[in-house]
Amino acid sequence: MSTSPALDAETPSSLLVARGGVVWLATRRGWWLWAALVMSYLALWGAAALLPTGPTDLEVFFWPGAMEAASGHPFTIYHLRYSVTYPNANGPVSLFPLTLVAMLARALGVASDFGVRRVLVLTIFAIFPLLLSREALLAVARLTSRRLSLRWTLAGAGALLLAPALWQGMLGYGHIELALMIWLLLLAVRQLAEGRPWLTGILLALAVLTRASAITYCAPLTVLMLSRGQWKSALSLVSSGLATGVVALAPYLIASPANTVYSLVSFHALLPVGHMTLSSLLLRTAWEPLVMAYDSLAVLVASLAVVALALLLRRDLDIRSPDVYALLAACGLCFPLLIKTLWPYYYYECFVLLVIWWLAQRPGIMTRARAARWAAGGLLPATLLALALASDYMISLTLAWPDTERWSQVIALGTLGVLLTTVVMLCLSRAGVASHGPASPDGPVVAL
User: 291-300, 375-384, 425-434: which has the minimum mean pLDDT?
Assistant: First the structure.
């Protein structure tokens, strides 16, 4: 493998090498160290799965569906209910790998063992956070021609892999699809930057069919292309995405139409308005029924407004700019801000996007002014982690505590503050950090 002349000066144990617009991982020596780190991370998830916990959504929704699919009925899973009315309101994509795990558990004779199967599921699904972190680092390598040192590589990967919001979502709440959806989203953005909108549409559709919140990222990418006159590419993205969605959902709609529609569409309107979002401010008012029925629409309208404002003030913004990740994060924040029911792991999606944007904005030469601006940008993902922890703590409190409602409003305003700050920093940012063309065949080289 030919490499950049920069390798003559230093030969790190592992490199990210950009070739033809695609960044590849090439190891020279010390591969065993990276393998040991990966195995240690998987083992950490396996050990954490042994912690005492009550049933989560993994046991209540996902595992029963996977077992039914493994029993030969993959398209009737949406008839399953918890407590009579609660269905699995998530798309079917995450059930494909989980069904394989269920088949393995049955073959090993541990499918009915709560503890062993939990260890098995979380250890295997811990692969997706690793894929997510790798894709995030590849995004940083694609967006900047400067070296990403071993220290920053470990820091960035550690922040993504050990973020409390990730562990809250997958371990504490049993939403094993969380990292899978974000990985698909990051793959979609990279494919779009590399000129494959049809593949982007497929990946975005799969992301939406993994977690519905991914729909907030479809509009900004499509509108961004339309605003730059890329009509054919936008049409390719939308048509491939719609075709993927139709093909993926058709078997479920044919096998069990009423249950599928109820689980994926109708049920959400029946959920009550909770706390910690702006929607909660309308509790016990005449507007509450509208919030119950149209909170998802409010999220989409708000994300479109964010896109319109950003494109109006940033006419230089395109898909190969680091600021696209800030734009996606701002649109994604509309979900925890306006959705009627907030869960702490909702913040992790935007946390990942802001970490990518923040690392890609790192100045080559750290003057005091540049360091101050960059440090201020780092406060945004840090604040999201704080909000995730605070909202998790709020959920653990009883509503009888007198200050619960007040602190619920503080969390909602905190989310709004991060959203507005992200939009302001995005609009005031300047192009030039991004590499707006495909990388040369032998570079750049980003040290891991």
Answer: 425-434
Cβ atoms 25, 16 nearer than 8 A: yes
User: Considering the chain, what percentage of its residues have pLDDT values greater than 70?
Assistant: 85
Q: Which residues of 349-387 are buried (b: 16+ CB within 10 A; e: fewer)?
A: bbbbbbbbbbbbbbeeeeeeeeeeeeeebbebbebbbbb
For residues 126 and 52, is the Cβ–Cβ distance under 8 A?
no
Separation of alpha carbons 427 and 163, rounded Å: 27
Rounded mean pLDDT of 105-109? 94
Q: Quick one: CA dihedral 386, 392, 396, 397, positive or negative?
A: positive
* Amino acid in the structure at residue 348: Y
- Asked if 41 contacts 130 with a C-beta cutoff of 8 angstroms, the reply is yes
Whole-angstrom CA distances from 265 to 134, 176, 294 are 33, 21, 12
d(CA 87, CA 240): 28
- Contacts of 186-191 with C-beta under 8 Å, sequence gap 24+, read 186/132, 186/135, 186/136, 186/139, 186/352, 186/356, 187/135, 188/221, 189/139, 189/221, 189/319, 189/324, 189/325, 189/328, 190/135, 190/138, 190/139, 190/142
CA pair distance 380, 357, nearest whole angstrom: 11
Residue type, 37: L
Going by the DSSP 8-state scheme, the letter that residue 438 receives in this structure is P
Both structure tokens of 400: 């009888």
Measure the CA–CA gap between 330 and 346, rounded to whole angstroms: 13
pTM score, whole prediction: 0.88
What's the confidence (pLDDT) of residue 349? 97
Q: How far apart are CA 183 and CA 170, in angstroms?
A: 14
Measure the N-to-C terminal CA separation of the chain; round to a whole number of Å. 17
Give Cα 332 distance to the centre of its chain. Answer: 9
Structure tokens at 212: 């519905």
Tell me how crowded residue 206 is: count the other CB atoms within 10 A of its CB. Answer: 23
Token pair of 326 as six digits: 């800030």
Contact predicate 384/426, CB 8 Å: no
Which string of DSSP letters, residue by residue, matches 175-242? Answer: -TTHHHHHHHHHHHHHHHHTT-HHHHHHHHHHHHTT-GGGGGGHHHHHHHHHHTT-HHHHHHHHHHHH
**CA dihedral (364, 358, 218, 161) positive or negative:** positive
Whole-Å CA distances, 366 to 162, 355, 360, 374, 428: 27, 19, 14, 9, 19
Residues 442, 1 contacting (CB under 8 angstroms): no
Residue 137 to residue 62: CA distance in whole angstroms? 30
The residue written with tokens 């479809």 in the block is 218
